[in-house]
Design a protein that fits this description.
Helices cover 30% and strands 27% of the residues. The chain has six helices and seven strands. The longest helix has 13 residues, at 42-54. It is globular. Bound molecules: S-adenosylmethionine.
Length: 188
């Protein structure tokens, strides 16, 4: 990725980014980091890309792939942070393998992340949240933050005031926002 951005700044991924509100929002806030939004839906990525151009962001990119192939695009230990923003919960038993925190995916993220790299998860779905926390625990990731109501929690500042499209939809319907942050380091 240093070939693309022509620098060796930290790299942050947004997984299932849709229109990439975090990719662009954080890109503006942190010019000394690189941000890449990853999704399969071209129309959503195009909207994110147009927004990035309008904001004149040179530290932002979008990658249209199925996330199952993400290891074809990044090196092990290359990524500093991953944001997983409002993934489809897929709570039917038969869909577990499609959840973006299913071990198949989580293991990929952990291989790409630096040893002290960070995963952030934001979701409206309390069921998906509980499922994901259980996965994080199973991989002994160190918990840095965990709340079922981000906006009234002590971590309210940590989402940088960025609301994604799906976040707005669910928040306006009265859902609270679940947020967790874990570190790629085993619990003692
Ligand atoms: C509910 S939307 C959330 C979009 C955005 N993060 C937001 O909060 O507005 C979930 C996104 O994940 C993407 N997605 C789900 N599974 C994927 C996969 N296996 N590979 C690539 N993208 C995927 C979908 O295309 C969709 O844009």
């Amino acid at each position: 990725m240093s070939d693309y951005f022509l620098n060796s700044n930290p790299i942050v991924l947004e997984i299932g980014c849709g229109r990439g509100e975090y990719t662009n929002g954080l890109g503006k806030l942190f010019p000394s980091k690189n941000f890449i939004g990853v999704d399969i839906k071209g129309d959503r990525l195009a909207a994110g890309g147009q927004q990035a151009e309008a904001m004149q962001l040179t530290n932002v990119a979008f990658l249209r792939i199925q996330i199952q192939f993400i290891e074809d695009f990044f090196l092990p230990n290359e990524i500093d942070e991953i944001w997983i923003t409002f993934p489809d919960p897929r709570m039917k038993d038969r869909d577990e393998k499609k959840r973006l925190t299913f071990p198949f995916y989580l293991e990929k993220y952990l291989r790409l992340l630096k040893p002290d790299g960070i995963i952030h998860l934001k979701t409206d779905s309390s069921e998906f949240f509980e499922y994901s926390l259980a996965q994080f625990q199973a991989y002994q990731l160190r918990s840095l933050a965990e709340t079922k109501d981000l906006y009234t929690s002590i971590w309210n500042e940590d989402h940088f005031g960025i609301k994604t499209r799906f976040e707005k939809i669910w928040f306006d319907k009265g859902y609270t926002i679940n947020y967790a942050r874990v570190e790629n380091k085993k619990e003692a």
